[in-house]
């Protein structure tokens, strides 16, 4: 089996990866959020999201109780996997993006009516969730992107620390 040689990416390659990652996040609106609890292991959830590209922030909604929220209270680190398999007819063209970051929990989503309005427009299937009491707004502050293009090409970019007090 042929080994891939590690080469440090240039600034231009990093910018291109960030642009592609943001583009994929804008084209898609569902992903799998992974959280972790040391005693129970990983937990994954299929989630709808709203992406704010200028701030490298991803917003998600969740009921305020459950394993995902418990895990995030113990450890705010999380990953979101987003891919293009619904759009690509050739498997060799599929992109998969792992977004790593820190999640801030907002217990009062009504304070972010702008985000809730976008959720209600882009994710009409979440109408009943948006009406629930105890709803939590999850703010995933992106710290890195790992973008896979097909089976053989991967690019990793760590973003500058935008939220230094949160890490």
UniProtKB/TrEMBL annotation:
Residues 20-123 form the Pyridoxamine 5'-phosphate oxidase N-terminal domain. InterPro entries: F420H2_bilvrd_red/Heme_oxyg, Pyridox_Oxase_N, Split_barrel_FMN-bd. The keyword Transmembrane does not apply. GO terms for molecular function: coenzyme F420 binding; oxidoreductase activity, acting on the CH-CH group of donors. The keyword Oxidoreductase applies. Transmembrane segments: none annotated. GO terms for cellular component: cytosol. Keywords: Oxidoreductase. PANTHER family: HEME OXYGENASE HI_0854-RELATED (PTHR35176:SF6). This is Pyridoxamine 5'-phosphate oxidase. It comes from Paucidesulfovibrio gracilis DSM 16080.
């Amino acid at each position: 089996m042929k080994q891939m040689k590690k080469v440090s990416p240039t600034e231009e390659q990093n910018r291109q990866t960030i642009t592609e990652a943001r583009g994929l996040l804008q084209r898609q609106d569902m992903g799998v959020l992974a959280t972790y609890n040391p005693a129970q292991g990983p937990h994954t959830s299929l989630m709808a999201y709203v992406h704010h590209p200028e701030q490298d922030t991803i917003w998600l909604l969740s009921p305020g109780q459950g394993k995902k929220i418990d895990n995030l209270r113990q450890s705010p680190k999380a990953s979101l996997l987003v891919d293009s398999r619904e759009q690509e007819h050739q498997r060799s063209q599929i992109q998969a993006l792992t977004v790593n970051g820190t999640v801030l929990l907002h217990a009062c989503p009504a304070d972010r009516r702008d985000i809730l309005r976008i959720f209600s427009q882009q994710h009409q299937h979440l109408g009943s969730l948006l009406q629930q009491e105890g709803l939590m707004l999850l703010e995933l502050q992106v710290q890195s992107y790992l973008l896979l293009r097909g089976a053989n090409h991967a690019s990793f970019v760590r973003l500058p620390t935008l939220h230094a007090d949160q890490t």
